[in-house]
Specification:
4-stranded parallel sheet, disordered C terminus, Rossmann fold
Length: 324
């Protein structure tokens, strides 16, 4: 999808806003997993999630084409909206974001702090997405999709950082929301000629990508996850699906209970806060831990934007020590 030189140039654009995020081999997480465990901390970006990188490259591409719009509209459960809000503000473009009713209070507040006009509509992300498309058409505004090759380019920079920093990674676990994270991991891996296997992770309560990858076509699936809002996708993106099919090693499904335990584990081990989707990769690796002995495992803590009351309930529900 993108070349190594493209990704390197995108990284320089990203670094005008913030520096490369760290990756650490956490000893407690490694002990828990029974393997050398490296965690990439995309929760350390200025919006607390990896998505900001994609917004920067998307707007840069619009500017280079002389196509900066008078208004942008998009839909989100939070992190994509912060990304677009951040980049739109930097370019002086008014931004409206549609979220479903009951969306994260703190993600909504974060978007509004960036100057975003927030609209609540629909019961899930797909409904919000469809309304955003209608609104953009009605207003003559530019609809920013949640999956696009220019978004993938920006997100690829964090995988480029990860693969270069830990060249002996054997396997990486990547949460799949609408597909930009996994597609970016594939793009960076191919550009660098890295050997790591890429394992996709989906919520067991939002299985459109698991079902679609198995069927080789888009399969709509109900969304019932209460914790992994960043993975709460009802309809897979066709373009993302076609890119993922030849390159994803396999898919691991994780339940809300497993994600909650991973959130607790990551806080115990690293004292970093992970939102539901941000803990999904570790939850999946823990499912596979019997097969990971002797391997170097890459985990992405891709976001830490969880509402305080939700995180408090997750943490207080169990405080178990390391188990084997």
């Amino acid at each position: 999808m993108w070349t190594l030189s493209d990704i390197q140039a995108a990284a320089q654009l990203v670094y005008q806003q913030f520096q490369a995020t760290p990756q650490y081999c956490w000893s407690l997480s490694s002990q828990r997993l029974g393997a050398e465990c490296w965690i990439k901390h995309e929760n350390h970006t200025p919006v607390g999630a990896f998505k900001i990188r994609g917004g920067l490259t998307y707007f840069d591409a619009l500017k280079k084409r002389g196509a900066l719009p008078s208004e942008v509209i998009s839909a989100t459960r939070g992190n994509h909206g912060q990304s677009i809000g951040w980049a739109a503000r930097a370019h002086g473009v008014p931004c409206t974001i549609v979220v479903p009713h009951g969306n994260s209070i703190e993600k909504n507040a974060a978007m509004q702090s960036l100057g975003v006009t927030l609209i609540e509509h629909g019961h899930d992300f797909q409904a919000a997405r469809e309304y955003a498309q209608e609104l953009a058409s009605l207003r003559g505004a530019h609809m920013v999709p949640s999956f696009h090759r220019d978004l993938v380019l920006g997100v690829s920079t964090y995988w480029w950082e990860f693969f270069r920093s830990v060249p002996n990674l054997d396997v990486v676990y990547v949460p799949i929301g609408l597909g930009s994270g996994a597609s970016s991991a594939i793009t960076a891996k191919q550009a660098l000629g890295h050997r790591a296997q890429i394992v996709g992770v989906v919520s067991a309560h939002a299985t459109t990508y698991a079902d679609s990858l198995a069927a080789g076509r888009v399969v709509e699936a109900p969304v019932t996850t209460l914790l992994a809002d960043g993975m709460a996708c009802r309809v897979a993106d066709q373009t993302a699906l076609q890119y993922l099919i030849p390159h994803i090693e396999r898919i691991v499904q994780v339940t809300d209970e497993q994600i909650a335990q991973a959130m607790r584990d990551l806080f115990f081990d690293t004292h970093n806060v992970a939102e539901g989707a941000g803990a999904a990769a570790f939850a999946a690796a823990m499912q596979d831990r019997q097969t990971l002995a002797g391997k170097v495992v890459g985990i992405t803590l891709c976001g830490g934007n969880v509402d305080t009351d939700v995180f408090s309930r997750v943490i207080s529900s169990a405080t178990r020590p390391i188990s084997t």
